[in-house]
Amino acid sequence: MKKYFLPVASAMLLLAGCNVLDKEPLTSIAPSNFFKSAVDAEAALTAVYDGLQSKGCYAEVLNLVGNMPSDDCTSSNNDVRVLDDINWNSASGQVYDVYHDNYRAINRANAVIKYVPGVAGMSANRRDQIVGEARFVRALCYFNLVRLYGAVPLRLEPTESGDPAQLNLPRTPADQVYARIVDDLNLAAAALPEVQVARATKGAANALLGRVQLTQRNWAAAKDAANRVLTGAGGYSLQGFNSLYPANNNRGESVFEVQFSGSTDGGTFFTLPDIVMPTPPATYSFPKFNIPTLFVTGSAARATDLTSVVDTLNDQRWSYQGTVNAGRNHASYVDGRGGANDRGPFVWKWRSDGGNFNSPDNYYVLRFGEVYLTAAEASNEVGDPAATVIGFLNPIRQRAGLAPLTPGSPEAASKATLRAEIDKQRRLELAFEGERWFDLLRYTRHEQADGTARHAVTALDLIQQKRGSRDVNYLLFPIPLSELNTNPQAQQNPGY
């Protein structure tokens, strides 16, 4: 199943397609008149998943936000210049897109959570599972928001009227938003099955919970969540790295993917592959986004570029895998051999013909490989013995063709050296999958909270590189101008 559209799903899209920023209430269909049957409940859940396919979520912008400000990617294209230069403001398009589209998905999830428990004609188990899936999506979207904007309005009810008291909420402190995310994920994990194709599972809820707990530096909780995935009954396993791409629900390593079909039903277009791949296979030739910082020369080269950590000879995530239509395949990137706009390194984790900016490839949100890295990082930070830490790390190294570490290896000499190795493997493993900037933000917060912790690169280091000062205000996005203009209770982040 590649696309979540059922015949009555369009009704739910009208119901829950409220523009949070513009404060349009749900006027087309009353929720009490829609949630009447099991078919309605399934259609409503379909619309929740559809929300993740929007431009400001996983069709394009979240990935750009997670890559372009980081040391992994660059671009000469002016459309992403504000991200590349860390020079965004409250009117920047990406700042608006992420905020708007994640809240739209949240609004749909809120409707399901509120009304599906009252739907007759279906089993209690299925009702609970549908609500659990909606809670997973709501938690994912709030996690996207709180990492980028900090305190955000915590909307837990669907928008159903034009009442300013319902529409205009103040920002909720970040720690309270995180508490709701953790609560939703625990409730989701309890309700979801171990296995189901193309939708959230118990493993997905726990894998995301591990990422959330890492972000909060709740090391023991992060380790516990990761271990529940590693030892659970989800049937996950590491696969050959090059074979992972593109995502298509058929990999044992897939924990959660956002689904795309390449069709136009519902108006969803997966534009990301076309704007990061060379031509061919991309539809058009133009200066692409997310260009890997490999082999950069001259004044543009930086000490933190990918070139400083990538081994293109021995690491199978980066070594030559054969020739493809785009050029030389190096698993994570392709060495394009086309014209001026299509020559050099390009992201190669989506590979299908763009089909006029509408790829049929899926988007990995969570992979089993990341769960090992979550466990390794959390294990190291709680002070586990080196042998325990490298037990989580070695499967990732060995899958890449690298020698396993032992307690006597230099990388395992101390907590600090293990931290450096885990950071490095996370960067190499998850490159271009939209997490690098968020990891750099985590590392900054870690150093701020623990004076003994050091990471090779943090977000503040890149802010210094690109802006000339270590301006902590750029650790967050601004609240979009359109939200400030429509919500009198919204307050802007410092520095904007």
Automatic annotation (TrEMBL):
Its family remark reads:
Belongs to the SusD family.
Keywords linked to the UniProt accession: Cell outer membrane, Membrane, Signal
Recorded hits in PROSITE patterns, A to Z, give:
PROKAR_LIPOPROTEIN
> Gene3D superfamilies, from UniProt?
1.25.40.390
Signal sequence segment: 1-22
The RagB/SusD domain is annotated at 316-496
Top-rank taxon, per record: Bacteria
Q: Where in the cell is it found?
A: Cell outer membrane
Q: What organism is listed for this UniProt entry?
A: Hymenobacter monticola
- Pfam families xrefs: SusD-like_3, SusD_RagB
Q: Kindly provide the name given to this protein in its UniProt entry.
A: RagB/SusD family nutrient uptake outer membrane protein
Classification via InterPro entries: SusD-like_N (IPR033985), SusD_RagB_dom (IPR012944), TPR-like_helical_dom_sf (IPR011990)
CDD domains, per database record: SusD
Domain SusD-like N-terminal spans what residues?
A: 36-214
